[in-house]
Design a protein that fits this description.
Blueprint: H1 3-10, H2 19-26, E1 53-55, E2 80-81, H3 87-98, E3 100-101, E4 111-112, E5 123-129, E6 138-143, E7 148-154, H4 158-162, H5 168-173, E8 176-182, H6 185-191, H7 194-216, E9 220-224, H8 229-236, E10 244-254
Antiparallel strand pairs: 1-7, 2-10, 3-4, 5-6, 5-8, 6-7, 8-10, 9-10
Helix pairs in contact: 3-7, 6-7
Length: 261
């Protein structure tokens, strides 16, 4: 592409009715902008106390990545095949994906392992599984501050979830189908419209962490872009506006012997 052609694309007038342009403009900051002061403590993750609590093992699976030379890939897989996760592997993926890291000596409280937009904690983590050893099939919520699970829905819903993914085979073959859920008001109360952008940045950090940790443990991920938002939100019990799914990741074994349908 010539420089003249690129300049025409980069400086195009744009579509005044395009919602993404309105969003992009609304999330910009200027010199006069100041964040709303934090009101008390940071929002707590969903507690879901009426649901059965499932403790995670205290230990995590050792993992390592090399930043030079030959290292394990973290690209998204095209196709997965079933394979059981251990509870220790599950705990490792959740903790290093979006859970608490070890607090500093000056802070007794756990802190998130991801970038946090002014301690507003706008994200929640749910997952569906039928392939974790010792864990009944169903839907779970992970509380990163309590570092435990809540058993939200029983029974294997893989075939039901497959109807809401364009690549339905991923729901049927994944050991773990992880949903990153945003509560935008936790961020927008402090950061105004920019808070929505920050929530998406944090969601991307969780997705990347899960990809890296799963890959280091010998698993692979398929980052799902083409899912039916409203159906997934209804399955999780959310209105899709104040609480909504913003990312889906399937974790499993890469199937290199099959082709994508």
């Amino acid at each position: 592409m010539s420089s003249a052609t690129w300049f025409g694309v980069a400086t195009a007038a744009g579509d005044p009715d395009a919602l993404w342009e309105t969003f992009h403009e609304n999330t910009k900051l200027g010199p006069s902008w100041t964040a709303t002061p934090a009101l008390g403590s940071a929002p707590e993750p969903f507690q879901l106390r009426p649901y059965p609590r499932v403790p995670l093992p205290e230990t995590t699976k050792p993992w390592r990545i090399r930043l030079g030379g030959k290292r394990r890939r973290a690209e998204t897989a095209s196709r997965l095949k079933p394979g059981p996760l251990t509870m220790e592997q599950l705990a490792t993926i959740l903790r290093f994906g979006g859970g608490p890291r070890r607090p500093s000596a000056a802070d007794d409280a756990p802190v998130p392992s991801i970038y946090d937009s002014g301690t507003t904690r706008p994200l929640e983590i749910f997952f569906h599984t039928a392939h974790v050893d010792g864990l009944p099939a169903g839907l779970y919520h992970y509380n990163p501050m309590a570092d435990d699970l809540r058993f939200v829905q029983r029974r294997d819903q893989s075939h039901r979830l497959a109807e809401w993914l364009v690549r339905g085979d991923l729901a049927r073959t994944a050991a773990l189908l992880l949903f990153v859920v945003a509560v935008p008001e936790r961020s927008t109360l402090r950061w105004s419209d920019r808070g929505y952008r920050l929530a998406l940045l944090e969601a991307g950090a969780i997705v990347r962490n899960v990809n890296v940790v799963a890959g280091a443990l010998g698993w692979t991920c398929a980052n799902v872009l083409d899912y039916f938002d409203r159906s997934i939100d209804e399955y999780l019990g959310f209105d899709g506006v104040t609480v909504s799914t913003v990312a889906v990741v399937a974790v499993g074994r890469e199937d290199r012997g099959s082709t994508v349908p």
